[in-house]
Amino acid sequence: MRINEDTLLEGKYVVLVPYNSDHVPRYHQWMGSPELQKLTASEPLTLEQEYDMQRSWREDDDKCTFIILDKQLWADPAVQEEECMVGDINIFLTDPSDPTLAELEIMIAEPNYRGKGIGKEVIRMMICYGVMKLGVRKFEAKIGLDNKISIALFKKFKFQEQSVSEVFQEMTLELTVDEDLQKWLLGDMSFMQEREYQKIRDSRQAACPPLTQ
Ligand SMILES: CC(C)(COP(=O)(O)OP(=O)(O)OC[C@H]1O[C@@H](n2cnc3c(N)ncnc32)[C@H](O)[C@@H]1OP(=O)(O)O)[C@@H](O)C(=O)NCCC(=O)NCCS
């Protein structure tokens, strides 16, 4: 999706930036992990396929993705953006006849960053973004039955169990965007600032230009 190609979302612990080709090598390295492949139900890709995937996430109208950065590291312009990457969050519009239905996926790829509240912050940011900017009215999450942490995370946001697939060993959870949810999650949006990504990226690079050989 091109809607977020110049969008940076800043929270308390994280900064979300659009997934671009500079992020692909690190992303590809993450997805080589059998643990992450299992937890995210993903197949391993070659580096070339990962670049194709990044282009598709950028260009296809049904996909919106952000890379999650460690805000504290990123605050130092001497630290390259790719070194601040900790995971990703996606919205996938699953039904072409209903653009208000979205699947939400999250991955905190760096184990050291798990269990610190980042998942909670990022899910809240992406629900708000999905509702406000993409017009999402219902979110779905498909989670492996043994991924108790992820199930607990989505239930914190009032996702309800909808169905269980014994074949795929996964559960589908749903969240309908009603008035109560809007008041609860969108009532105070001061926890997140939206800024222009390219301007900030340029100013970080100008402050600390990469070393040339
Ligand atoms: C699942 C995942 C997204 C959770 O993100 P996180 O940043 O680690 O989670 P948070 O620290 O925000 O914790 C959110 C909730 O998860 C639960 N949780 C987190 N760590 C936990 C642990 N070690 N044991 C039990 N529950 C845990 C708690 O309910 C917690 O809420 P609380 O702190 O208010 O009690 C992250 O661990 C991850 O990406 N893991 C690998 C990939 C994956 O499983 N992706 C999901 C595919 S569906």
TrEMBL record:
PROSITE patterns: GNAT (PS51186). Transmembrane segments: none annotated. It catalyses: N-terminal L-methionyl-[tubulin] + acetyl-CoA = N-terminal N(alpha)-acetyl-L-methionyl-[tubulin] + CoA + H(+). Residues 34-176 form the N-acetyltransferase domain. InterPro entries: Acyl_CoA_acyltransferase, GNAT_dom, NAT9-like. Signal peptide: none annotated. Keywords: Acyltransferase, Transferase. Pfam families: Acetyltransf_3. N-acetyltransferase that mediates the acetylation of the N-terminal residues of alpha- and beta-tubulin. This is Alpha/beta-tubulin-N-acetyltransferase 9.
